[in-house]
Amino acid sequence: MSASGGTKAIVAALAANLAIAVAKFVAFLFSGSSSMLAESVHSVADSGNQGLLLLGGKKAKREATPQHPFGYGRERYIYAFLVSIVLFSVGGMFAIYEGYEKIKHPHEIEAWYWPVGVLLFAIIAEGFSFRTAIKESNATRGSLSWTQFVRRAKAPELPVVLLEDLGALVGLVLALAGVGLALGTGNGVWDGIGTLCIGILLILIALVLAAETKSLLLGEAAGTEDVEKIKNALVDGDVVTGIIHMRTLHLGPEELLVAAKIAVEHDDTAGEIAQAINAAEARIREAVPIARVIYLEPDIFSESAAAAGTNPAKDQGGATPGTTH
Question: In terms of domain of life, where is this protein from (predicted)?
């Protein structure tokens, strides 16, 4: 998968999680390890999450309708938010419950080679999935740090898969540590503690995902770099002499709405202004191809109009510095 919404990383994660879920559950049946049960449920939840991401990507491709004139691009944000809910409830809360029960009623792990072997296999499989997600992310991450990439990405799938895979790898290490300590000490409480730690980890990841996808659902503006490209493309220095104010909004990961009030000369003709607007729209789409919905309103620049339409806390484009009429 790519940050633009491809499926490579999702499919890789789905294949890994389905195989791992079966292996973990078999290991639980033979060993009775609560860590293995929690991890098997975790993998089942992750598999369901990848299914949700694929479903969201498919639904987002539907054509716009009179009832939804801007299309269905935000379906991907909705399904990514559902992923965080599933990860929190099915994965995190179940693991915490199992960990508490195992600490309260500990028992020895039987057939230790099953959980240890499966956990080692799972670490290799999850590592492959994580490597695929990293490779796909690097194609679009640029110079951003990983934290910045997760926070700024407009396509939700890669951050979701990255965090899920990271959580899965850390969870596997915790499960391996819990099983190892339980076997080494003969005290099953350690298995429960490992399970409890897995639950806490999953809940923390779910909260991060929920916060990021909530922001996308509410509607995020274009990134700083794209905003600058749009502003530079708008002004031609001839008919369009400045930007009075501007708003951008992601209708989906690959669709951007641009609305701006542009400054023109008072003696420009309607034909000249219409031609300048068409040219400005073409320049914007060339500079930022995802800017597919553009509304430009011409106006005579005035300080009062600019002040009324510009809120520094919310606005991305104000009057072009040095422009006066």
Answer: Bacteria
